[in-house]
Amino acid sequence: MNASASAHPASHPANSAPATPIVSGDDRALNALLNRIVDEPEIHARWLNTLAFLEFMGTRKIARSLNGRRADRIALQHLAEEARHAYFFKRSIERVAPDADPGFALSELLAGFSAARYFHGLDALVHRDLADADPTVGPELCYLYVTTLIEERAGWLYPAYDAVLEARNLPLRLTGVILEEEQHLADMYSAARRLDPQCEERLQGYRVQEAQGFAGFFTRLQAAV
Ligand SMILES: [Fe+2]
Hints:
Blueprint: E1 6-7, E2 23-24, H1 27-39, H2 41-65, H3 73-96, H4 112-129, H5 138-167, H6 175-195, H7 199-224
Antiparallel strand pairs: 1-2
Helix pairs in contact: 1-5, 2-3, 2-4, 2-5, 3-6, 4-5, 4-7, 5-6
The site of fe (ii) ion has 5 residues, from helix 2 and helix 3.
């Protein structure tokens, strides 16, 4: 995505998922990066491990957020699905590098430090921004916004990766993960709109900052492959 990452205001009806991607970036740079990644099995394995790491970070953040809010069916479903996504990417490593079984040490990831900084940075900025929010909805809103931003980014990244996998005839597809992320985004987005009258303004500001954070991670990925 490079530093040209951009975010566009949403323009879709209440309580529905965006009809078109609302996070975009430099598609050509992404495609070039992904093709370089899949060229080399060892790099590809570290990329899959990095996606597993990010999904695992998401799982942990959802689990922690349940301390401050109701652990309802949707929340537990999302927790279970994010954990499954982490496992899916971890298991997929054997498709490209059969002998690899990495953990999450930074040396086993691709731009791992930047990946962690991107996610933690996003989480921190939303928590800071909502520090003065009504405590009965603040933890819920933090979860909803961070998840929305991550799912929007996944909605740009995962289909592009899936298309490269298909074009290169690699034995791996992201269809199930993509469908579940789309459903998460629809759930998060409709809940945020219901709980927060300032939802759209907040999201527009967060998207700009998310794009800046992601651009830093993306630049490090480009340097690593
Ligand atoms: Fe996920």
